Amino acid sequence: MTLDLVIRQARLHDGATPVDIGIKDGRIAGLAQGLVTDAPQLTAGGGLVIRGFADSHLHLDKACLLDRARNPAGTLTGALEAVSAAKRDFTAADIHARGARVLDKAIGQGTTLIRTQVEIDPVIGLAGFDAVRRLRRDYAWALDLQICVFPQDGLLNHPGTEELLRAALAQGADLLGGCPYTDTDPVGHIARVFAMARDFDVDLDFHLDFDLDPGWRHLDEVARQTIAHNMQGRVAVGHVTKLSMLPPGRLADSVALMRDADIALTVLPATDLFIAGRDHDHAVPRGVAPAHVFHAAGVCCTVATNNVLNPFTPYGDCSLPRMANLFANVAQLGQPADLDRCFAMISDDPFRLLGHAGDIAVGAPADLVLLPCESRAATVAAIGRPLWGMRSGRLTFDAPAPRLLAPPAPSRTSAS
Ligand SMILES: [Zn+2]
Q: 3-state class of 221 per DSSP?
């Protein structure tokens, strides 16, 4: 077989017998045991080979800000104010440099698809959008970047914001976000966002219900508008931390609501855990939506990074297996089937949400990532760090497992 490269002993599914992957002209040309070829080879050693991970919610424009913006109280208000103040000094070059640091990390963690949320308002204008568009071009050798523009600081309370959002959508932003909790008119905000989505025929991705008061919420209005605009399957909601406070009966009603409107749920465990429950001085609630319950009922669910090293989340290495592990830990999930579900929320579901469905198959692009584990559940349990990744058959990163340097065994001395 004439190939450019062959990957030996690649396990494509849990429990599957490893196969060889033949690659020609950037695409998968063969999938079989014992491919006969004299092409150069890589060994996967029986490890799991996947398409990579997909991060459905990541803010590149406000990442890596801890040198200039802090949130000592750890509250949502503190984070919003700190970033709002720092944003006045953002430039496109500054945003590009900070975003590049995040993408460098994400690539090395096996992420191959990202939806990035970009703030648009009269303060920042289109500087963030321009910087992220440049990042999309600069990093096309390693990953796909989907751009979601949104009004983080509100829409109706900031005249001029809608015009800028429309300009970004006209210039190629992939979809639109909403953030009704920062608006003086949240229901009006939701209505305007749906109207813009209709005008530009784009999907929607909301920051929604980001507190722990179950007494009110905007989820019902978003579901109502989704159905009214016939946008089932095209709307996602992120955070929705209120869902963590619902007793089983009301939670079941919420599952039915989201399933009927075919709305996807995105959980951002690092941010939600850092911000939620700051008004409690003991027995602090976890504040992470129980996505596994929604996923089990057929709702598209994703676990994502959200923020990296900024006032919303002063942590971050861009590892999605770490984020899935964090969610599993917080949700007290330990059975293999549950851990497999957590893996789906950083792979199958976000790929589908972002419109990149597809398997490793003959004819598909050779976009592949090797994991040091034999199963998806083990990857979540042990935070398996990818060993290498490739795009169109070309390696994009290489991160060999640590090599231990044990001292030589001591020479035996006879006691007798
Ligand atoms: Zn966000």
A: helix
What is the CA(224)–ligand 1 centre distance, in A? 22
- Pairwise CA distance, residues 284 & 212, whole Å: 11
Q: What was the pLDDT predicted at 410?
A: 77
Q: What is the DSSP string of 279-308?
A: T-SSS-------HHHHHHTT--EEE--B-S
Provide the angle, in degrees to the nearest 10, between the axes of the packed helices 92-108 and 127-138: 40
CA of 346 to the centre of ligand 1 (A): 16
Tell me the per-residue pLDDT of 165-182, one tens digit each, with 9 for 90 and over: 999 999 999 999 999 999
Asked if residues 385 and 402 have their Cβ atoms less than 8 Å apart, the reply is no
Element holding 208 (H helix, E strand): strand 204-208
pTM over 0.85: yes
Rounded-to-integer distance, Cα 52 and Cα 48, Å:
11
CB distance 108 to 349 below 8 Å = no
DSSP readout, 247-269? -HHHHHHHHHHHHHHTEEEEE-H
Distance 55 CA to ligand 1 centre (A): 12
Closest by CA to 146, choosing from 396, 391, 310, 351, is: 351
> How far is the C-alpha of 155 from the C-alpha of 184, rounded, in Å?
9
Length of the chain, please? Answer: 416
Our measurement of the distance from residue 51's CA atom to the centroid of its chain's CA atoms, rounded to an integer in Å, reads 15
- Taking only the tens place, the pLDDT of each residue in 185-205 is 999 999 999 999 999 999 999
